[in-house]
Amino acid sequence: MAVKKTITIKNMTGLHARPAGMFCQLAQKFRSDVSIIRDDDPSVRINGKRILSVLTGKLLCGTGITIICDGEDEQEAAQSLYSFIENLRE
């Protein structure tokens, strides 16, 4: 069963190139599938392990997102990625 965590991006520059890359590198450490869904457009599912997918997802400051992790280490993945977004400051 997938784990879902909802958070609002507070980083003033959103998930631009560097933080998007860092997010993807962190996501790739886990075996679980990682997806991001924007709260304002739930029909689009962003692959959290693919930098181009994250960059084109328009994940700007103030955007509400849901991180979905599904797999054997889903709890750890979801908490780590949530913490990354929560603590991101540039």
Automatic annotation (TrEMBL):
Domain HPr: 2-90
GO biological process: phosphoenolpyruvate-dependent sugar phosphotransferase system
Location of this chain's protein in the cell: Cytoplasm
Coarse class of the protein's main subcellular location: cytoplasm
Alphabetic keyword roster: Cytoplasm, Phosphotransferase system
SUPFAM superfamilies for the chain: HPr-like
The keyword Cytoplasm belongs to this UniProt entry's keyword annotation: yes
Transmembrane segments: none
One Pfam family here: PTS-HPr
GO cellular component: cytoplasm
PANTHER family associated with the record: PHOSPHOCARRIER PROTEIN HPR, PHOSPHOCARRIER PROTEIN NPR
Protein name (record): HPr family phosphocarrier protein
Classification of source organism: Bacteria, Bacillati, Bacillota, Clostridia, Lachnospirales
